[in-house]
Amino acid sequence: MTGTGELTFTRVHRGSPALLFACMTEPAHLVHFWGPAGTTTPVEGIVVDLRPGGAFETTMVNEADGSTYTMRAVYAEIDPPHRLVWVEAGVEGGMRTTVTFTDLHDGRTEVVTHQSNVPAAYLAAGAQAGFVTSLDRYAAYVTQLTDQEPT
Questions:
Q1: pLDDT digits (tens, 9 = 90+) for 42-84
Q2: How far apart, in whole angstroms, are the C-alpha atoms of residue 146 and residue 18?
Q3: 142 phi and psi, to 5 degrees?
Q4: Any domain includes 8
């Protein structure tokens, strides 16, 4: 498999766009879900400089063997709580991730994660499955937060 492609993942969560945006941009939230199943991301391994041109870095730790993987990106666009864009220049072709948060006006928010310039290795079924576990972890964390909110 060669070249690059695009991936889009759509999820609907109970919670406001502001809450879901905060979960994606604040280290205190990111530690609870960032990375695929079987990894942790300690707060000291997270850099969020939330401004265009600012750094977004996470160091994930494999729970099985302690190996680490650092994702390094630069924020390209920030429009709280509607849109967040970062580019991973170190990934072949400069993979771009755009996350949009759309208020459904019923207590839920649609979150669309669109990735472009995705390298072939990231398009493989195994890599996508790992990414989906990260989205699942995000969903579980948001559910935990919203279940604690008074109704």
A1: 999 999 999 999 999 999 999 999 999 999 999 999 999 999 9
A2: 12
A3: -60, -40
A4: no
